[in-house]
Design a protein that fits this description.
By secondary structure, this protein is mostly beta strands. It contains one helix and seven strands. The chain is globular, with a radius of gyration of 17 Å.
Length: 132
């Protein structure tokens, strides 16, 4: 499929994503042509090359696809994990799982999104979903 020379107006997808997060809304672009969500937000669907995108709120649920523990001295904040999370809607993103020891995060764990708005730039973290 050849790309057409489309003119885009308004804020870019990075800004739209941040604006959603600032409003505690975890949303991503979804292509109306192929039905796929994608992360990182962009103006062209990476799956089919389509421009027919809409923003939709996500469930916030995901599964740990991969994880590693980064070791740090206690005086520098202690250990933390870096995890790849596969969202229930399909996209995969890199983040951290908070609320448990870094080494306790395991592949296959079910997690729930947590939007951190404590700084100027909001970002997404995850917390474990408790098994009942």
């Amino acid at each position: 499929m050849a790309l057409t020379n489309k003119k885009f107006t308004g804020p870019g997808p990075d800004q739209v994503y941040k604006d959603h997060l600032k409003n505690n809304n975890f949303s991503l672009p979804k292509c109306l042509d192929c039905g796929e969500f994608h992360f990182f937000p962009r103006v062209v669907c990476p799956h089919c090359g389509g421009f027919n995108l809409t923003w939709e709120k996500l469930s916030g649920l995901g599964e740990v696809y991969s994880t590693t523990t980064i070791r740090r001295k206690a005086e520098r904040g202690g250990d933390y994990n870096v995890s790849l999370i596969t969202l229930a809607e399909g996209p995969r993103l890199m983040s951290r799982v908070e609320g448990v020891e870094a080494q306790a995060v395991s592949i296959g764990d079910t997690v729930q999104v947590l939007i951190n708005n404590d700084s100027d730039e909001p970002f997404v973290l995850f917390t474990p979903v408790s098994e009942v």
